[in-house]
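Review form for a predicted model. The reviewer records the input and the model, then writes brief findings.
Reviewer: anonymous (R2)
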Amino acid sequence: MNKRIYIIIGAIIIAAIVVLMVYIQSQQSPKLVGTTVFNPPLNTSDFILYDTNGNKIELNQLYGKVIAMSFVYRNCPDVCPIIMRHFKQVAEELNKEGYKGKYIMLLISVDPDRDAIQAKSFMEKMGMPDDVHYLVAPKGELQNVWKAYGVFVEIPTNKMGNYTVTHTAIVYVIDKQLRIRVAFGHPGFWSPNDLLQDMIILIKE
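Model under review:
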C-alpha cells in the first residue's frame, strides 16, 4: 500500500471523527422545552405601554434581550398567581446566575380598571425583582396587544363585586431578535425550571 493511499485513509478517518464529534455535541446541546416550540419562529408585534412605576416599555427597544411575556390580573384566583410566582422565581435565579440585564419579564394586564389601582402595591408586596414589569393601560390600548398576541380576554360587562376575568393562559418567550421562539400554556403543565432553561438557552445564543 503506497503512501498516497495511507494519506487518503487517514483523511477519511479524521473526517469521520469530526462528523461524529459534531453529532455527539448536537445531541448533548440543551433543547427548548416549552409547551410549543416555534420553528420557524413567529414575528412579534410592537407596542408601547407603561409599567406601574411609570417606565416606558417599547417592545422594539428591547432588541438584544430575552423576553418572557404573559397576560395576568391582580385579582385572578387561580392561574395568574402561579405564573407571577414562577416569574419571580425565574428572575431571582437568572440574577443569581449572572444574567441580570440580559432579559426582561413582562406581565400585561387583562383587567386594567382594577390593576391600575392595585398592581403597583401588589408587586411591591410580592417583592418582585425590578426585572419584572407589570404593564397597565386603558382597555382600548391593551385590546390591541391582546389581539396581536392571540390572547382572548372577556371582562364582565356588569362588574359587580369580586368579578373574574376569563383570559388565555400563556407565556411567550421571545429571543434577542424579537422573535417568538417558545410558548408555555397552563402553568400546571410546566415548572419554573422549564422557563428558566429556555430563557438561558436563548440568552446564550
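Findings: The two ends are 47 Å apart (CA to CA).
Further findings: Helices lie at 3-28, 79-96, 112-126, 139-148, 192-204.
Recommendation: see findings above.
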